[in-house]
Amino acid sequence: MMKKITLLLMLLTASFGFSQALPFDFEGTLDGWVGDNATVSNGTGSDVLEIIGGAGQAWDNANVTFASAIDLSDDANNTLRFTIQSTTANPGEIHQHGVSFQSDGQPSYEANFQTVGTDVLNVELDFNSGLGSRDRLHIFTDVGNLGAIQATPNVSGTDTSSLSGTYIIDNISLGADPVGADATLSDLQVDAVTISGFDSGTISYTYAVANGVTLVPTVTATTNDAGASVIITPAGGIPGDTTVEVTAANGTTTQTYTVSFGYPIELPFDFNGSIDGWTTGDGAVISNGTGNDVLQIVGAVNAWDNASVTFTTPIDLSDDANNTLRFTIQSTTAAPGEVHQHGVSFQGGGGSLEANFQTVGQDVKNVELDFNAGLGSRERLHIFTDTGDLGGIAASPNENGTDTQGLSGTYIIDNITLGATVLSVDDFELSSFKAYPNPTQDSWVVKSKNQKISSIQVYDILGKQVLSLTPDTSEATIDGSSLKAGLYFAKIKSDNSLKSIKLVKK
């Protein structure tokens, strides 16, 4: 009787579990994986392997010991596959990782691979022929170059062993190449021309059509696998997206490519009914404003809150005679006399080209920044709402010295242009002519002391004539009711003089 009771107790205290064997899908279980200088869990959805790397640990990893050693001798069936994604990396930041099949007392079989930012990476490592069996698999979070490389591809060269991060891994398998699982394209064309920069691994493209074009261009696609099929759904109009859905020969693997059609994003910007491709950064909010005809920026109390735009074609700043940036800006929230410091920055390739400027209270500011000679091209323009002093100063004037990055506000910006210096002005403080009221909301009176005014021509800041008068009197009224708020120049001609005067429309 005692023997039976003892046997029953032994059965009750025995541990039961599943053998650890590939593949691993991590549905509600870690499948026997443990951490070494790293923390592992099933992640937020309880269906992945989440690894939190040990900060600064050279060999932090997750590993599993198989119930039976894994045989890597069959070259046709020893390709390791899984997906991995960093959830903490900065955009464009490279992290180098590694895998290693190991057994005590035996050489390791290893390979490096890299992730970029928070992009999902489909890892596929084809191990070499003639290998033996190993009973453990390690996945290292951040490493230098591993040394016992036995698989291709081997992506290395960036030592990130001092970095760390959080990574989610799923669907680890080992086996033969799947039949008919390729859902990628070998070519993607718009109107019979391959899209610039096409790569089978890049699925989103932006394509600019000429202003005024309304017909959606024709998109055609060629698959890498002849057995794959393609469905192309044209955009409904411009702007719009044409999608190319590729289905692999196996009927289950799919990939969708997108071609986004739009009009060129380029200077000048007038914001009439559109924010003209501008986006936000560091907490700022943008809109077309109350009248649907300006760029309104609601700043956040952050050091680099801004509105920015990426041009379809990079802006060339090399011509010193044609690289003056102009726009109007007004705070709608500042207290009277309150100074706010802002900044502009041309960025993208070759460093930032920057300048500071300031607004006071709710006064309209006509910004005019003459960028230096000998500059190159830049692909983005940022306007920062409230900043400290920017450091890559490449324009004049440069108004700085008041750090307002701890402040915020709402600003309206309009008529952003880049071009030549405006009309030559001999003398803004003219003795022979005067204009009043200046600034005005509707019209100006121009008066001469002792000469008849034969003609008045009004130009905007780009040098475009917007009004013309021939009063033939010593006093004339310029009706500016149809003009937008901003800076203008009046060229005033009399019998023996030609002068220019600055006019401001509120």
Q: Tell me how many strands there are.
A: 36
Distance between the termini: 105 Å
Poorly predicted segments:
1-17, 422-431
How much strand?
over 45%
Instruction: Tell me the quaternary state.
Output: single chain
What average pLDDT do the residues reach?
Answer: 88
Largest sheet: 6 strands, antiparallel
Evaluate the radius of gyration: 33 Å
Spatial order of the strands forming the largest sheet: 2-3-11-5-8-10
> What does the overall shape look like?
elongated
Number of helical segments?
1
Helix content: under 10%
Query: Based on helices, strands and strand pairing, what is the structural class?
Result: mainly beta
Q: What's this model, at a glance?
A:
It contains one helix and 36 strands.
Structure, described:
The protein is mainly β and 506 residues long. Helices cover 2% and strands 46% of the residues. It is built from 1 helix and 36 strands.
